[in-house]
Design goal:
9 helices; two-stranded antiparallel sheet; disordered N terminus; mainly alpha; about 300 residues; 3-stranded mixed sheet
């Protein structure tokens, strides 16, 4: 691979498509930089133990899934990413989001959601925005700055003080640059595929992007209501479906040009996996049956 195709940093997508062209969100004009004097600052809670959170595991989840909607990841070389992950990565593109990488302690559900929200919004957000977005439907009925500070403390415990600095006087939380998000990297990889002059690079970029998708974002969690409120779930569905369709068509065209033997079998497997990934997020989309018929005809 030419050295010029490698990207080491990625710009985070906005909550609406297209994800790869997005920029970090600006602070809303109606959000005060300084909170009400009636609220204590986070510094006032230093030394106060972060409460151990009990995640509700039984009953209906946010998305009320009746069956698990997950897909096995693509078989890609994860040591040769075109857009590498950070030292810590939050994975949103799965039924139960999580944190992986250089963690100093296990991450609680509150910590994961706190990091996920910041990572999906340019690695920064105000306390009012976090206060109005985080938590389960039940806890959000009693919104409080303390909920945010508790989640921030939990995130700090698993990521370390350097990666989750305390909010300063303007109450903006900022994540360290080495904290990445799979959704942000997905967008960067899709954009790389769109810019690529080499079809092989485009196919590789799309395969790596789709390898990050393991299921419907947060379908197995009672949290993450902001995914729907900010239309991010819709953006993910649209982007994943489009990437899956494009990769399937590129691989089918290569297969129809004369793919045979082991290489042909590999191309067929990629088409099948692309269709399966797209169908998980967008089962009613029309291309999947047409692509399956073309795949059958190519055998």
């Amino acid at each position: 691979m030419p050295a010029s195709t490698e990207i080491r940093t990625a710009s985070p997508p906005s909550p609406v498509p297209p994800p790869a062209r997005a920029v970090p969100n600006a602070l809303d004009a109606d959000e005060e930089d300084v909170l009400s004097d009636a609220w204590p600052t986070e510094d006032a809670l230093v030394g106060v133990p972060v409460p151990e959170e009990i995640e509700e595991q039984s009953g209906a989840s946010r998305a009320e899934p009746t069956t698990s909607r997950t897909v096995a990841p693509f078989d890609v070389d994860r040591d040769d990413w075109l857009v590498p992950p950070g030292a810590v990565e939050v994975r949103l593109l799965r039924e139960v989001p999580d944190l992986i990488g250089a963690l100093v302690a296990p991450a609680s559900p509150a910590a994961v959601e706190f990091v996920a929200y910041l990572a999906a919004h340019g690695n920064r957000a105000t306390t009012p925005r976090l206060r109005d977005s985080l938590g389960t439907a039940r806890t959000r009925l009693s919104r409080s700055g303390k909920t945010v500070w508790s989640a921030a403390g939990a995130a700090r415990q698993c990521l370390g003080e350097a990666r989750v600095p305390r909010a300063s006087g303007n109450e903006i939380y900022v994540l360290a640059d080495d904290v990445s998000c799979d959704w942000v990297r997905f967008g960067a990889l899709v954009e790389l595929a769109e810019r690529a002059d080499d079809e092989a690079v485009a196919r590789r970029s799309l395969a790596q992007a789709l390898s990050l998708v393991e299921g419907v974002p947060a379908a197995g969690s009672r949290r993450y209501g902001w995914l729907e409120e900010e239309h991010l779930l819709e953006a993910v569905t649209t982007a994943v479906s489009a990437a899956a369709e494009r990769l399937a068509r590129l691989e089918l065209e290569a297969l129809e040009r004369g793919g045979s033997g082991e290489r042909g079998e590999g191309q067929r497997a990629i088409v099948q996996r692309a269709i399966a990934t797209g169908r998980i997020l967008d089962p009613r989309a029309t291309p999947w049956r047409e692509l399956e018929r073309r795949l059958e005809a190519s055998s």
